Every structure is written in structure tokens, then in C-alpha cells.
Amino acid sequence: MDVWKWRSHLVLDMRKVLETTPKERLHRASVQLARSMTKVINNHRGHLESCTIQHYISQYKDGTLQSWIDSVTGLKHTKDLTLINYIPAIRRYKGANLLSLHPDTFSHHSLSSLSLCGFNLIGPDAFSKCKNLKTLNLINIVISQASVLSGVLAAFSSLEVIVLNVNFLTPRGVLKIENNNLKFLQLSSLNEIDRWKLSVDITDPKEVEILKEALLMWTNFVMELEIFFKHKKSHREEGECSTNDRTHAKLFPNADLYVYNMRLYNFDGSNEEEFAFVSRLLMQKPVILSMMIETSLFPPAKKFNAEAAVAKLMELPKYFKNLKIECF
Fold it and tell me: Which end of the chain is more exposed for a tag (fewer CB within 10 A), N or C?
């Protein structure tokens, strides 16, 4: 009896063979290996907890990769899928690495975790209707610009874990990560991005922790950082506490993040937690040149409170003495 046919974890890896194959024979060797891998998938019985497929460029040029994905998700109900594009040193990042798949490729209800490695992503089509996915890993990925990645991430409305190691071909566009379910975010190789837009409920410890982790991972200069303060109307659950000054005091320990210009929106002058947070931004070195705080759109009473709070911020000792604070 072939016990392997009933195993819940499957790894199909042609890399070790291709690494010892002369470059002129890579295509032929990969096609032969792909036939064997197809037989393995077809002969497997039952469902899969996880499946890892490491392939060569030929397999998504001839549609084999699409067929594999359809089989392991639609027929095997794979929960955790990893796709790795084998990139020989002679090829690296060229147009041939473009990942072009059918719309809704990763939309099967059983698929909860997806990892892609070594591809050029050109758009979000293959990721539409992916409300089932909880974990997304994009490793060693090339994307034209940040806005394309924003479109890809927007397709995953239920993501709880996002790991990004990507390179952008151009510095244009804005990276937006808007997800209320997010519990873990890891960013690396994103030095091409020089502008951030973030929204946070400063009274929610979970959101503050995510913000803290994101800022501490950044080891570069950011030209502009925009923060929108959210004010949730729902009351806190029993036993849940808000953030405090001690939390904000540890926001930037040993951080290498420097922001030239910062803009703050919906800043509530009467909110002590928001005031404590902003004061730490001024005193713990991140902001270098200017901090602009929007107050012009507030009703009179709220505008008065906000501008009074800004006046107090101006009196605080600043890490950068020439830092300018203004309302707009």
C-alpha cells in the first residue's frame, strides 16, 4: 500500500535537480519533472493540510502551474499553499517571471494561508474573492509600484497575518494596508517607499502595538507620515484597559525611523491618550522638520480644544530644536 498517497502534507520540489542541470537543458528537465509532479498530485488521495510546489518558469508559461493550483485547492482542499519560483542566477528578475493566473485562482474556501516566492506580480486579478485567506506571505517579490501591491492586499479582507518582502520597480504610488482583522504585520525591503498613511485608534492597545511594530521595523528616512486618529464609539469590553503614558513611552526605543514631515488628522485635543502619543513623537526623535495638525475642519468647540492642545505641544522639549508645529 502506498502510504504517501494519504499523507496530509505534500512537497513537490524540482529545485535540487535543476540546480545541477546545465542552463540549456533547464526547460526540458523541468517539463519532465513537471510530468512526474502532476502524477503525484493526481495519485494522491484525500485532502491536504499543506502543499509546497517549487517549479520553473516553464510551468506557468504552459499552464501547468495553474492546473496544479486548481487541483490542490479545488480537489485536495489544501489549507496552506506555498508556491516557489525557481530563479537561476543567470535569469533573476526579468519579465519572464511575471505571475499571470486566472481570476479567483486563490478563492477556494478551504485555502487559509498562501505564500508566494520569487515572482513578479502584475495585478490583483488572481487574488479576487479571497475572503477566506488569513495568512499571506509575499517573499522575494517584485512589483511595479506600491499602488499595485495595495490593490493585491485589498483583495484579502480577512487577513490576520501579512509578511511582505518586496521590491518596487518605481517609487510611484502609495502603499495602503487597510484591514481591521490584522494581528501581525512584517515589512522588509520596502526602502523605496517614502510616504506612509496610517490610521489608528490610540485607545486600542492592539492597534497601538501593531503601529509600534511597524514603526520599529522601519530603518530609513520617511519624507511624509500621515496619521489619522480613529475614535471608536463602542465601549470597551470588561477587563480591557486602554493605553497609557507608559505604553507611549516605549513607542520608539532605539528606533532608526526619521520622519521629515508629519501630518495628523482628527486629533482630539481633549483626548489625553492622543496628546501623550503625539508628545512622544516630538520628544523621542522621529519627527525632524515639521508636524502639521489639521484643525480647520472641526466645529468651533472641537477646534478650540485641538488648538489649545497644539499650543501645549509647542511648549514641550523637542528632540529636534528647530522642529516646526503648525495647525492647518
Answer: N
CA 53 to chain centre: 22
Q: What is the pLDDT along the chain (328 residues), one digit of tens a residue?
A: 577 888 999 999 888 888 888 888 888 898 899 999 999 999 999 999 999 999 888 888 888 999 999 999 999 999 999 999 887 654 454 545 678 888 889 999 999 999 999 888 877 788 888 888 999 999 988 888 888 888 888 888 889 999 998 888 887 777 788 787 888 888 776 655 677 778 888 888 888 887 777 777 666 677 888 899 988 754 444 444 455 545 445 555 445 677 888 899 999 888 888 999 898 888 877 788 899 999 998 999 899 999 999 999 999 888 888 889 999 9
Q: Which residues of 109-126 are buried (b: 16+ CB within 10 A; e: fewer)?
A: eebbbbbbbbbbbbebeb
Q: How many CB atoms lie within 10 A of CB 102?
A: 11
CA dist 294 to 3, 42, 233, Å?
65, 60, 21
- C-alpha–C-alpha distance, residues 61 and 63, integer Å: 6
For the chain, give every domain's residue range.
194-328
Beta bridge partners of 262: 225, 291
**Of 92, 25, 86, 23, the residue nearest 59 (C-alpha):** 86
| Nearest partner of 56 among 97, 113, 102, judged by Cα | 97
